[in-house]
Amino acid sequence: MHCSIPFDLTSALGIARYRDFVQRAARLCVAHRGSLSGEHGDGQARGELLGIMYGDEIIHAFEEFKAIFDPGNRMNPGKVVHPNPLDSDLRLGSDYAPAQPATHFRYRDDDGAFSRAALRCAGVGECRRLEPGGGVMCPSYQVTREEEHSTRGRARILFEMINGGVITDGWRKRLAGVDPQRNVPKFAPARIDRWLRKRPPAGSGERGKVLLFPDTFTTAFAPGIAAAAVGVLEAAGFEVVVPPKTVCCGLTWISTGQLDTAKRVLRRTVDTVAPYIREGLPMVGLEPSCTAVFRSDLGELFGRNQDAERLARQTHTLAELLVGRAPDFRPQLPGKPVKAIVQRHCHHHAVLGFGPDQKIMDAVGLQAESLRSGCCGLAGNFGMTPEHRAVSLACAEQALLPAVRDADPATVVLADGFSCRTQIEEADTGRRAVHLAEVLNAAVRGTRLGEHPERQLSHRPGHRVR
Predict the structure, then answer these.
(1) Sheet holding 283-285, edge to edge
(2) pLDDT of 355-369, one tens digit each?
(3) What is the pTM of this model?
(4) Any residues with CB less than 8 A from the CB of 141 and at least 6 apart, and which?
(5) What is the pLDDT at residue 231?
(6) Stretch (H or E) spanning 241
(7) What is the DSSP code string of 364-404?
(8) b/e string for 155-192 if b means 16 or more Cβ within 10 A?
(9) Is residue 306 exposed (0-12), middle (13-18) or buried (19+ Cβ within 10 Å)?
């Protein structure tokens, strides 16, 4: 049996109850002719209980046998022979008094306690997956094989920091420059959010209004994606509106630990979009990492706030909105079925889900294969720093980059995340990944996708960006 029982291991009474329970459980197991030993052996957790299963005579034989080869009891002491008490070296204990640092995130699932959140890891090691492309967890561990890169290792570091037993110098937030071997992303020559604010409504608007969130990545670096999304939404019967001034999800500040700034930025954004949200308008995000902020991080930072809660409920991906509110909108890519390989963003896995994206791709005639590649390796600014570049590229080389290089020229490379697209282009694959909005806009326009389809996708839904 594999079970996890939430014993109270931080008080003397709770520890006494734990000891009583495991002793009675051991006697019950033996009474039914069961074994206390599992596939991982006995060790300290069960050493004291072995006498219940084997009896004094056999335990004494164990002691004599060990004494022959280890008279000084130097090899693995305190385990099977002359074991330490099962409750003597608990990770917590009755004297457990972790630091309770003031945090910006609410940790609502952990009663607001960061120290409790740091105990979430059970130590099973499921995050130490080794098979290439076999999951989305810990891509840097798959490359380095170092425990510190696994989720378990990082959880342990957090525990030690708040416990103060090993790491005594507390937190350190370190900034670094861009790796000189990386190309700094180029800003777009024009801001599409300004064009969208001036542009008169187009399309029938029969399905009502939708608020398009002009995230920083799309606005500053890939305005064609926003233009394509507008073309798709209007063709689907929506009237597209945008916030009246520049807004930001605060992701950059969140990911670098600048949470005071992040909250100020998010507060301004929430206040700006609140009138639209209170009217019941859905908000569509195009960048997965930014969209995930509104669905998850926002509530953690703001707590019980009606506008923040409304915004979280009313934030959708483009695919979610189309599948949920325009189920009959199914533009078809002309010609024979188009194949695609898809790099799902980490936030698709962790927060957003990918089911609606798969449905809409199937509906428009895109034969999409989702790569078992996990993280692209760039992960925000991780792969842009000199000390992380090698690990970043090694993560991508496990599955993503070989799949892109091996893909037929007529196969679409699809990646909604700015980081994912940047990694693919930076690695000299000779391909440019495209956003789902661009493919859907091609279907709306009736554009036939042939060889090197990314070169044929129009980024303008009938209007010129100025």
Answers:
(1) 239-241, 209-212, 283-285, 315-317
(2) 999 999 999 989 999
(3) 0.67
(4) 127, 128, 129, 147, 149, 150, 153
(5) 94
(6) strand 239-241
(7) TTEEEEE-S----S-TTTGGGSTTTHHHHHHHHHTTHHHHH
(8) bbebbebbbeeeeeeeeeeeeeeebeebeebeeeeebb
(9) exposed
